[in-house]
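Quarterly update, task 2.4: calcium ion-bound model.
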Amino acid sequence: MEAMRNALDASDNAIVMSDSDRRVVYVNAGFTRLFGYPSADVLGKRLSETLFDARAEPGILDHIRTTLSSEGKARVETLLYGQTGQPRWVSMVINSSDAGAGGTGGTIAVLTDITLTKMHEVLQKRVLEGMVNELPLPDLMILVCKEVERIAPEVTASILAVDDSGYLRPLAAPGLTPEICEKINGVRIGPNTGSCGTAAYRGQPVVTTDMATDPLWDDYRALFASTGFKACWSSPIKDRRGKVIGTFAFYFRENREPGVLHRRLVDVGLHLCALAIERAAAAARIHQLAFFDALTGLPNRSMLRSSAVRALSSLRQDNLPGALLFINLDRFKQVNETLGHAAGDALLWEVATRLTQALRARDLIGRLSGDEFALLLCDCATGDAVQIAQRILDDLARPVLLPGQEYMAQASVGIAMYPEDGTTIDNLLRHADQAMNQAKSEQRHSLQLFSPEMNRRAQERARLERDLRHALAEGSLTLHYQPQVLSTSPRTLHGVEALARWNHPERGAVPPGEFIPVAEEAGLIHELTLWVLEEACSQLNTWRAAGKNVPTVAINLSGRSFHHPEFAQQISDTLQRHHLHPGDLMLEITESVMMDARPETRANIAALHSRGFKLSLDDFGTGYSSLSYLHRLPIAELKLDMAFVRDLTTSPTARALTVSVLSIAHSLEMVVVAEGVETPGQQQWLQAHGCPVMQGYLFGRPMPAHEIEAWLDAAGHSGR
Ligand code: C2E
Ligand code: CA
Ligand code: CA
């Protein structure tokens, strides 16, 4: 019996035997070790008077009793508090001691301390749940501290973050005073900065068993003097790459080292803190990516909008004016194209810096897109807004050193005033944008205040765009054809140029000079071009079938169509559908297409050329291409712009230029078509100087297809 008793006492488990009246008849030494109660304190009493007191899990004893009576055996895991108030997680197995023996009706309970594993589980579960519920980082960290302090009441816990520059930032320290936290905030980690700053600096835990004497605490002793803490143990929190991102510290009110339980808590805590801090950093990074422009670091459009909504509502409350400045760089595309994207990026970055410097504390800034920026100036009246805008223009014009060259940025600024020009950020942005466009079209590097007139024009334009879309969809555009004649025989047709016509239901004829640019900007031009192609081919086929000899139809092609990789194929397909040949069309392109280096454009031009299509260079002389360029491109025809033709009789320069164009074209075997010939004088001069083809009101206006037929009949021949 004695041997048996010794064996039971040596066990780490607590063993409790009770009689049928549930009074304790025996506890082993393990029970006292685990819960602190000497056997004398529990013997003869029920466990509900000691161990299972008010702090125990409600209903747990009833649960054990019912399970015991039905199954003869019960097993539970629960938290119990020992005599000193120390909580213990135990796994408890209870057997009826009469099981099978017909004995006393008592019970034997074996309790195993599972605190270490259990508290680990509980802490982890709570914190992970907090993360799933997206608790903010400080709340999560407070949860960790409180949970640790609940499990180990002798501990006061604190969690500090270490920022990228190596400064301490308190995250949670529910047991420290706000004054202490304030003082800790911004302390730089170092070799002698209390337990935490030093632990972060060393990347190693620091145990201070006596804060009163440890030299690490020299600078912080006074701060902690009134806390009663005597010992501190701080461990660095590290991210997955091993970088220190925080510290996790335990303060004790006695001079001591951490115990096993503490070490286990820290193991779990460090892991959870690292997870939570890294997660918060990732969320912050995502926020940064979502709301800030990566290149300049400025808020992006959506961020600017949401801050502006708040700013405007406070302007409204305070009854103050504001100004929205819309800033667009002039010729930014050219910088990118000629100096390269690195230079473009450097320029944007510099512009962002200079704009930011123009701001006052309440103002907002954002990068809306590419080379567009917006500033919202708060408490700023019109006069001040104009002054600030002018200062910005001056400031931007200071030279910027870009890779490879010095550059002077120019910009156009539009200004819309709050509240006169708009009370919502969207209206202000739209109106400032309109004013900016006005500035850009009138004079570059200038500023413009919004006016309601601009808004009317913009609305007008929007209406035109909507109607044009409609006209294209319902097929209410038409084509007119203008004769091109041989200068040696003005009644012989060289070809006709197809020109689009739009008869607007309310406004009447809208000139192509108005609706073609709208189609370009609205992204409708390619559709329009395909329609023109289809219509012109169908018409040419009809003429051919009727024996009307129209040698070629010239079609105006927009540069944008050449960005569609399938464009050359679309032209071929249309042609084939109408049983025509590449030689039946003359494709008019502008100099900008000729200079366009985009691979799609180059590929389309090469494909058209190899399939035998003839290209004509429209409006020659108005663009920037040089004559020396011409021989490198498969151009069959030059159309001398009407500006030259108009000036022929009055300007010697126009005459000299025309003569050289004619001779170069002649040597390159290109046909020259003079456009806009209106007078016999022009005709004679051109004919005398060897210009082979002419087009103009003198020979025929653009006209509907049936009038072309009449023109041919009147000319008394059927083409050449
Ligand atoms: P463009 O290609 O230079 O077309 C020639 C323009 O000069 C036409 O104006 C024509 O009516 C006009 N014109 C012809 N002879 C004379 C003349 O003796 N004197 C004067 N003062 N003008 C003359 P329109 O039809 O108003 O077209 C203007 C521009 O619109 C065209 O200039 C062309 O760039 C564009 N356009 C017209 N139709 C189309 C089209 O189907 N597609 C594309 N992409 N652009 C088109
Ligand atoms: Ca043309
Ligand atoms: Ca032209």
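Highlight for this quarter: The chain is about 45% helix and 25% strand.
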